[in-house]
Design brief:
Two copies of one chain form a homodimer. By secondary structure, chain A is α/β, with parallel strands linked by helices. Chain A is built from ten helices and ten strands.
Chain lengths: ~260, ~260
């Protein structure tokens, strides 16, 4: 049984204002909490159900974390997830080192991604492809939003997110920049370099015009829908899907010689 | 102002039981309703706000559809979307021809996809890549679920979904079958044929063992995460993302000779 004060703290961490004030955030559900226990994130407080505790006893003890065994119903009362029968952690936000891009590194840059699920999924994709750094424009949703965190399926522990004035940052870099557009060179034929920055645009508006002069290469994902039919074809792909497709083609182009 | 009876009908169409009984389904929001007006789906009833009506006057008149202009608040009361300030249509389910697979056609087969958003996104991806047919196992979520329909962003008008006893159907086909697994031939190096069936598995369990002897070729999406690090890497990709990646590589492999 945890206190009313704890419940209030947890609920308030669903709001960005309170996360910024405290430097804390929520990690919810079995998979995400286990990944956090395995990471170097500092857990301030851990609420677990008895089955979760039994299953991960060693991990919890090794991490030397302050934990409390509670009823599932108590977690359900405060979680932001639709259901949570396992665990919830209050975690300290990490201070990441200054951004530095290596010579063989792909970095993602996000211009105003607004949907928390999309952002979380992009972090998970980055992790799959070994991308370690994401630069997010100031207008991008907060990475510590509980829905972003849960959508990453634990990948937030391995990918660093930098918030920055993106056009300003890109105007100073010498690294080649690639932007996802509806028109551009096909990712099926483009030979990508070893390192570069891939810019993905907002869900509704794409990449903003602030970037017009900052993109070295526009790229596009070829579509195969029959445009001749009277009722058209799919007009676009979801931004997370598009990110996966471009990064995958980037990697494939490097392997093919 | 529409009647209480209409409101009840709309609400009930959020349930599969009632959709099956009536052969109707809901299409909600500007983009989806416009795509439906442009398709050969039969609209039984259309509720529109004044701004939507003004914007799409010609389209509505041309389709000769029964429409009613209502206040935004009335649509909000019955819509399954988080918000809907434009239009809602009650649409007749379409009878599709018997399944027939052509010699140059890629067909998707879904084994027990449970998440409506994933299914809708897969339909949208199919549309992008010119895939016209999806075979869904009996356990797959209903394609007329309002969340499936809204996630397709209108692509449901161009992709036909067949529900079938999938293992039985595959046991009879001579078309090459490809299954998405965590281990298999890399999609970056495999040369795909002109036609084939791509089987994608359930979100949690992957492709069920019923298919073990029915897959001609296991395929996998290469991961580049550093498995040597102590805290691992992303273990999987979302099923819609994986579908997009495999189909994209399929198409790319055909183009490259």
């Amino acid at each position: 049984m945890f206190t009313k004060g704890q419940a209030t703290t947890i609920k308030s961490l669903q709001e960005k204002k309170y996360r910024q004030k405290t430097g804390l955030f929520l990690v919810e559900g079995e998979k995400s909490v286990v990944e956090t226990l395995n990471s170097d994130f500092e857990i301030k407080n851990l609420l677990v159900t008895k089955p979760f505790f039994t299953k991960y006893l060693k991990l919890i003890k090794d991490k030397k974390v302050i934990y409390e065994i509670v009823e599932q119903g108590e977690i359900e009362k405060v979680t932001s997830l639709e259901s949570n029968n396992s665990a919830l952690a209050i975690v300290k936000q990490k201070i990441i080192p200054d951004l530095e891009i290596k010579g063989d590194e792909i970095v993602l840059a996000l211009d105003n991604i607004r949907d928390a699920g999309n952002f979380g999924t992009i972090i998970r994709i980055a992790d799959w492809y070994g991308i370690k750094k994401i630069i997010a424009s100031i207008g991008t949703v907060d990475m510590y939003n509980p829905k972003v965190i849960s959508s990453t399926k634990g990948s937030f522990t391995r990918v660093e997110v930098y918030y920055a004035d993106l056009p300003k940052l890109l105007s100073k870099t010498k690294i080649p920049t690639f932007g996802a557009y509806m028109t551009g060179e096909s990712v099926h034929t483009l030979k990508f370099p070893k390192n570069g920055i891939l810019i993905m645009g907002n869900e509704s508006n794409g990449i903003s015009h602030d970037f017009d002069k900052l993109i070295s290469q526009k790229v596009t994902i070829p579509s195969y829908g029959q445009t001749l039919e009277k009722n058209g074809r799919a007009e676009s792909l979801n931004v997370a899907i598009a990110t996966a497709l471009i990064v995958d083609n980037w990697k494939r182009s490097q392997n093919s010689g």
